[in-house]
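Sample A.
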Amino acid sequence: MTCFGQFKPIVTGDSISWDLKHEIFDGAMMENLVLGDTISIDSITYHNVNLNGALLGYFREDTMSGKAWFWGATDTTEYLIMDLSLNINDTFLVKMYADTNVTVSSIDIINGRKTLTLNYHYGGGFISEDLKFIEGVGPNAALFYQLDDNYYDYFGYLVCKMFHDTTIVYAWDTINFECGSFVGIEEKHQNKKYNVEVYPNPTKSIVKFVLKDHSLLNKSIVIYNIHGQKLMQKRFDKTEIEINLERFSNQTFIYSIIGTKSQTIGKILKE
């Protein structure tokens, strides 16, 4: 139980990261969120937030009020993403699908952390959850859920695990330390005019990327491991390129085409 009017901080002296489950059409994938260095914006100190190794935005918190905010890297304002000072039936503005004032339906202490459940359901496929604010962890819908979907398309995330360095301090599933079902290797095209064919997938070593839209020429593809560590980057200097994964062990990789307003991301399996 939190005492003396101060809440457990999300940011500590340790390295802070989250494993996120991301629902994609008829499947789901794991992604990695990491807090980075601090930056000053309008004389306020924020932490860089990196999704799969790429800067997504900036985060700050006030442990006295139990509030936290997120500012998208290309946005013009910050959004309140958590408020642990709310009471049952208090309202909170959620911008996930459309601006909606929702109420706090319950307040519990779970594993020593104050947890607020809001009368707001998101997902419906592999992710189907009520929005929660978890003391010392953040929103269960990830730090960036308030971003405008028309621009970012960052919906359908669920916090699966939170780490201080390599120690798990929170898990959605405290028994199996997993995060529900996953199906296949799905690609995500946040803007359907950008399209890329990836084959063979699974692969033994060589993966080919074929552009279906020439507007992606001169953009770059980045390969990450499932922990969000950047492994390589290559520019689309022609409509078909190859990437050799031979030197890496058999594992699942995440690819992301960067340099566009709307990303294309997906998974590659090396076996």
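Sample B, a different protein:
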Amino acid sequence: MRRPMIRSLLLTIAVIVVLWLIIATVLSSSLADNAYLRWAIRVAGVLATPVLTWLLFPSITTGILGFYAESIMAAVEHRHYPEQSPPPETRWGDQIRSLLTLMGLGILLNIAVLPLYLFFPGANWVLFILMNGYLFGRSFFDLVMLRRLDWKTTRRMWPQYRGAFFLMGALLAIFWPR
């Protein structure tokens, strides 16, 4: 299991570097004619770039890890559930659909609540845990369930298990490095 984890970490770092450069370029390039306004926008960009990049890190990491999850889950099943029948052929379309949906939702939600993060100290931590708890929990639920079930069945089962998976995701978000 170390190889997929190391690969996902390295790929996440590469994506974060690219994301950092994109955010820095977008925030620092200004169409303002006023030199002072242009300078203020660039300074804000320099300060906002690490914050935006770090807020997007959980969504990106989860999305990338999802591409390696199959080998991790196969190793866990082989070791801890040897009597389990092999899963059906992977439904890559469902897996990718889930990963892209949740990764996109995570990025949009993190950007949407950015003003709350900045202006409500203390509440931002609770918001981070709640939002990323849901996203982590839902991602892990989909990864596991889509290994053996189709998209529609997985969607129908989510309400039954969302509490446990949300709690697991919230615990992960609490211990997420800051």
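Observation for Sample B: The chain has six helices and no strands.
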